[in-house]
């Protein structure tokens, strides 16, 4: 096995519906039938067909705003318990390898090579004609719980476009699930980076934190996110931050002081054009300061990336990659493992800063 394959790696920032293998989505499109009494098959609506064609050809993203319109086509195909379970199963399989089966106890290698050792998969509960928020989470958790706790857990995403009543309902559901012993370990804030009144969401994230759930927030993702919002989010005492691309000096100082892990998604940032080159990427700041980071994929479906591929970017010679040594990459992987909500020991920097070569 290669160096990257053999490293224990945690994937802590992967969105379920953004990580469905394209083959699975194509199968779901082919099998699409109206869930009606007569079970008659139906063709996909034209806008959904167009959306799928974009995903199949590898979408060109002009900026982050052309990313969110990719999701309606995906959601159309994952809106029943059966199709959501299929999609979740395929995502888990693509990250972790197949569910543990008797063949593993005979020492045979699983057929596909896992991308990571541990996965915290996140998803936004959706109510559809066939699903409630509760049944959505139950379907996803049932698939996650086929893996042992040291391999997989769920983070429940709150979308900034939700109403505050829905946020309240979903946070309550998430806390109830945790109290029932289900495999839910955290709450995330995601969705259109400029939507919503985040002051209204604050008490609900506070409740989630008090209930022992990990908190991760998509923060300062675009240059237009106001600094006041970023500082407000940091007052929620988050455990991890998604992207954190445009932190000002005050915000950076808090992140460093409180040792808040930053989830780094290199390919996602480059393709969504929130960062122009690896040379300018904020990962360099955290590496130099030996600050806890977790290397993550974000959405493997539109970005066509993988966790080993993201680690390969750390190793590759500049300007293609960051030019880190194997020992440095190993330390970065350990940081990611230490920042798990599920069975982590809590983030904590180790030894020296990483030497980032100047390009
Ligand atoms: P889901 O939560 O439905 O399983 O995964 C897809 C959803 O995750 C998208 O509709 C979007 O709300 C959110 N998402 C995926 N990637 C990103 C990202 O890079 N930034 C933000 N802010 N949200 C994202």
From TrEMBL:
Catalysed reaction equations from the record: N(6)-methyl-AMP + H2O + H(+) = IMP + methylamine
Keywords: Hydrolase, Metal-binding, Nucleotide metabolism, Zinc
Gene3D superfamilies, sorted: Metal-dependent hydrolases
GO biological process: adenosine catabolic process; inosine biosynthetic process; nucleotide metabolic process
Residue ranges constituting the Adenosine deaminase domain according to the UniProt record: 115-340
Gene Ontology MF term list: adenosine deaminase activity; metal ion binding
Extent of the signal sequence: none
Cofactor(s) of this protein: Zn(2+)
Pfam families noted in UniProt: A_deaminase
Family matches, as PANTHER family: ADENOSINE DEAMINASE, ADENOSINE DEAMINASE-LIKE PROTEIN
Entry similarity comment: Belongs to the metallo-dependent hydrolases superfamily. Adenosine and AMP deaminases family.
Protein name as annotated: Adenosine deaminase domain-containing protein
Organism classification: Eukaryota, Fungi, Dikarya, Basidiomycota, Agaricomycotina
């Amino acid at each position: 096995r290669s160096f990257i394959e053999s490293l224990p790696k945690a994937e802590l920032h992967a969105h379920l519906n953004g990580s469905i293998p394209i083959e699975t989505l194509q199968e779901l499109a082919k099998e699409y039938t109206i869930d009606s009494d007569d079970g008659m098959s139906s063709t996909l609506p034209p806008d959904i067909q167009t959306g799928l064609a974009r995903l199949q050809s590898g979408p060109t993203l002009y900026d982050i705003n052309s990313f969110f319109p990719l999701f309606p086509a995906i959601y159309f195909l994952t809106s029943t318990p059966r199709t959501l379970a299929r999609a979740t199963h395929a995502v888990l399989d693509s990250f972790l390898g197949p569910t543990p089966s008797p063949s593993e106890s005979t020492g045979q290698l699983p057929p596909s090579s896992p991308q990571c050792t541990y996965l915290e998969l996140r998803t936004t509960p959706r109510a559809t004609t066939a699903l409630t928020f509760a049944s959505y989470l139950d379907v996803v958790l049932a698939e996650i719980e086929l893996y042992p706790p040291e391999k997989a857990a769920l983070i429940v995403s709150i979308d900034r476009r939700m109403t505050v009543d829905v946020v309240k309902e979903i946070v309550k559901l998430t806390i109830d699930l945790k109290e029932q012993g289900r495999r839910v370990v955290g709450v995330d804030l995601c969705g259109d980076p400029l939507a919503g009144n985040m002051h209204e969401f604050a008490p609900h994230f506070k409740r989630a934190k008090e209930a022992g759930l990990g908190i991760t927030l998509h923060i300062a993702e675009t240059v237009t996110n106001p600094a006041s919002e970023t500082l407000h989010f940091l007052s929620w005492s988050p455990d991890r931050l998604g992207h954190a691309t445009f932190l000002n000096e005050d915000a950076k100082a808090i992140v460093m002081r409180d040792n808040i892990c930053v989830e780094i998604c290199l390919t996602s940032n480059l393709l969504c054009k929130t960062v122009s080159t690896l040379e300018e990427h904020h990962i360099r700041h955290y590496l130099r300061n030996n600050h806890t980071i977790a290397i993550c994929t974000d959405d493997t479906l539109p970005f066509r990336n993988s966790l080993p591929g993201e680690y390969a970017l750390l190793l590759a010679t500049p300007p293609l990659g960051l030019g880190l040594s194997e020992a440095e990459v190993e330390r970065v992987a350990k940081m990611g493992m230490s920042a798990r909500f599920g069975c982590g020991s809590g983030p904590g920097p180790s030894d020296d800063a990483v030497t980032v070569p100047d390009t």
